[in-house]
Amino acid sequence: MKFKLSAIFFLIAIYTGLSQNGKITGTIIDKDLQSAVPYATIAIKNGEQIITGAMSNDQGNFELSVPQNKYTLEVQFIGYQTFQKDIVLSESILNLGTIFLQPEATTLEGVNIIAEQSTIEQKIDRKVINVGKDLTTAGATAGEIMNNIPSVNVDKDGKISLRGNENVRILIDGRPTNMSSEQVLKQIPSTSIKSIELITNPSAKYNPEGMSGIINIVLHKNTMDGFNGSIDTGATFSHYAKNSNSINLNYRQGKLNFYGNGSYSYGQYKNDGDMMRTDIQSPTEIRMKSINKNYLYKVGMDYYIDDNNTLSFYTNQSTNNNTMDMANATTYPNNLFEDIFQNTKYDGENKYSAYNLAYKHLFEKKGHTLDIEGNFSRNKSTNDGDYDTTIGKNPNQLYRDGSENKSNLTTINIDYVNPLNDHTKLELGAEARLSRADNAFDSNNPMTSSDTHQINNKYDQDIFSAYVTFGQTYGKFNYQLGTRLESYKVESTLNGKTNFKDDYLTLYPSVYIGYTMTDNDMFNLSYSRRVDRPGNSQTNPVRQFSTPLMTMVGNPELKPQFTNSVELNYTRMFTNKSSITAGVYYRKINKEINQVIYDDPENDNPNALLMTFDNYKSNDAYGFELSANLILTPWWDMQPAIDFSSIKQSGFVSKLNTTTNQMDFIERNITANSFNARLNSNFKATKNLRFNLFGFYRGPLDGLTMNSKEMYKIDAGVRYSLLQNKLSISARFNDIFNTMKFKYDSQYPYPSNGQFTWESRSLYIGLNYTFGGGKGRALQRKYRDANTKQSGGTGGGLF
């Protein structure tokens, strides 16, 4: 598909003499949707020479000044055909009225061509990573793609962080998932992802969860006329072989559009850990082998009742089956303590279902919309662990832990947008969100008291909210003010008895100010108040063993932590389609949630520790980001990115007192500085042959309980297209030099160091085949599906 970036042009020729300036005005409208096209590029040309240019505002309006003369008007925007028209400016004002842009679809012998290269777009309120068929996404899961995105990191356990903070909201198609980030990123293949959105400082119309912002994973939804689709299959070779397969189908006829995509992946995985307690030279070895099976599908339909009304439905379904064998051995020199050996077999299953029904109404006035949406999701996970533990010369201790976690989430949203005039927009919305979680645990572990052998915990949340935002544009300035009023109720019940309640009413204000300094330089300053409510794992009082010497248990009395965030961003665009984006931010965190580690009172082993969570004092965080899309030559482009974050953290940990040989419970206050760098480079050797190099570096990071060392890697890939781009063959070599290892050292609770390794070095080989025909057609739900600023936003803020 032929894409043209919205390059911003400014005055590059100076006219002298007696020429008189005039104004040219107009409105840019999507021909199919009959709605405004904001941020389209308008250029005034004299032959091939660009005289001046402008960008349309949120309502699609533009105005520019130029000497009276004959010109060619050119309008461009991504995904639309270029509009050209010869004009004559002979008076003080020339009003061109409505200019209709026709959505662009490129076909090759009836086959729709999907975007070949992933791109990063810096929009007013978010960064959008459009996931293409390029080599940075070949064979990857959502988690692997995330590590290629600026400001995002995924650790060895699959936990995701944004700007160095794990308090980030993960959504699928704009909806909460009821799954942990580890489950989400593991179950979704790259071939099912259309785009990934980073919203680091959301306005009041977005749900306030996620202290560091929102990451939204948008799955594919095809809207081509007729029947068409694509098939992907591939294999990954490392210590064990793995395979992944997916299919994307669509049928569009008349008022009905049906679409769906599904995927299946299977793989065996190897993970090792080697640790050393240095004060007594006691080693611990962990050897893990796991098998993962993932099934995912999304199906849906749109019914276009008439030009102003659309009814839509979709469902997401996923299943993950996981088994893991883990061997854990801790030995002590000179019989200082009894050696510990444990073999564990885990068997788990996670099932997720979501159902979404939406209605959209377009009023006569452009941009005047009403959205009503209902969403229900259910998540059920089970995990059974069979433990075989030997301590010293004692007989083997055989026991079993089992857990079953169920959660339901129901949301109903109403969003209303009214452009009061060409420069003013009002948005209103309301949401009801009901969450029910039920966690059951049973165990026959002889090393713990009988009181903890059977636990049932229920955690219910009711959230009712309403928001209003008001925005205006004045020349080069634009602003938006908003606030969200939210009622939050929570009740935790342990074994039938209420053990915690909370009920409060909170305001979440937001402010946005934008300034277009020149046609190439844009600034925006934003403020928002957000909240990070404790997750199910942080509040669940169920004890879960990870090793014989470490247990985690949640704290149902955790309070939410609140954040006030200020962010300044700058975007520079160039005429050769290159761009640079920079940003700085500051956050004030109140009642920070962090870890507590102390002696385990339920475990007879004197070295056993218990980890839980608690609220602490206020802390600060700040950082900066810098990324670019550089078109160096017609055959070479690069996307460098760096980010830095500094976060103050507080928490209580245990430390061995060498004098008393007892554990001291101490508070630690640290500053965690994190630096990351990424460089993606694409080379086009021929029309059909492309190469890619990707480099990643993560600097050392000090933590509350351990200090991690630096990590880095280099990937390389190649892709060849044939059969007129219907078929492509990809190969990707990840972590060529096998350098990705998690290394650490620590003084808490004992002096120690170690490293964890996984199958980072791997070779992926895959095929993609696209079939079917039909011309692309825009939908009345386009802005809703594309998650643009014009959409409503209570349900996770994105739909």
Structural features, described:
By secondary structure, this protein is mainly beta. Helix content is 3%, strand content 64%. It has 4 helices and 47 strands. It has a 22-stranded antiparallel barrel. It starts with 20 loop residues before the first strand and ends in a 13-residue tail after the last helix. Residues 1-19, 105-116 and 774-799 have low confidence and may be disordered.
Detail the topology: elements first, then pairings:
Elements: E1 21-30, E2 41-46, E3 49-55, E4 61-67, E5 70-76, E6 83-88, E7 93-101, E8 107-108, E9 111-112, E10 119-122, E11 127-130, H1 142-146, E12 152-154, E13 160-162, E14 169-172, E15 175-176, H2 181-187, E16 193-199, E17 214-219, E18 226-237, E19 241-253, E20 256-277, E21 282-306, E22 309-330, E23 340-362, E24 369-391, E25 397-421, E26 424-443, E27 454-474, E28 477-494, E29 497-518, E30 521-532, H3 536-539, E31 544-547, E32 550-552, E33 561-573, E34 579-590, E35 593-599, E36 609-615, E37 619-633, E38 636-657, E39 662-684, E40 689-698, E41 701-702, E42 707-708, E43 711-722, E44 727-734, E45 742-746, E46 752-757, E47 762-772, H4 782-786
Give short descriptive properties of this protein:
single chain; 799 residues; mainly beta; 22-stranded antiparallel beta barrel; six-stranded mixed beta sheet; 4 helices; 47 strands; disordered N terminus
